[in-house]
Amino acid sequence: MSYVIKFDSQFDADYEWLSRVHPELLDDLDDAVPMLRENGELPEGYRPHALNNASGNP
Questions:
Q1: Contacts of 48 (CB under 8 A, 6+ apart)
Q2: What is the tens place of the pLDDT at every residue in 15-46?
Q3: 18 with 4: CB under 8 angstroms?
Q4: Is residue 58 predicted with pLDDT exceeding 80?
Q5: How far apart are CA 52 and CA 20, in angstroms?
Q6: In this predicted structure, what is the pLDDT of residue 50?
Q7: What residue segments make up the domains of the chain, in order of their start?
Q8: Residue 12 CA: distances (Å) to CA of 8, 27, 36, 39, 44
Q9: CA 53 to chain centre
Q10: Long-range contacts of range 36-42, CB-CB < 8 Å, 24 or more positions apart?
Q11: pLDDT tier at 14, thresholds 50, 70, 90
């Protein structure tokens, strides 16, 4: 099963910030997105956890 991942403008801004402040994390993020798209979940090595939706975005 394949999932659709929609990136909003906040994600783009956060990705840009991450690339400046913590560029060492970009490879992990870039690896994680295709895994989520394909499987809908991440391996335990990523320490997956539920996210709270404080911003209220759907």
A1: 41, 42
A2: 999 999 999 999 999 999 999 999 999 999 98
A3: no
A4: no
A5: 25
A6: 81
A7: 9-41
A8: 7, 16, 17, 23, 26
A9: 14
A10: 36/3, 36/5, 37/2, 37/3, 37/4, 37/5, 38/2, 38/3, 39/1, 40/1, 40/3
A11: very high
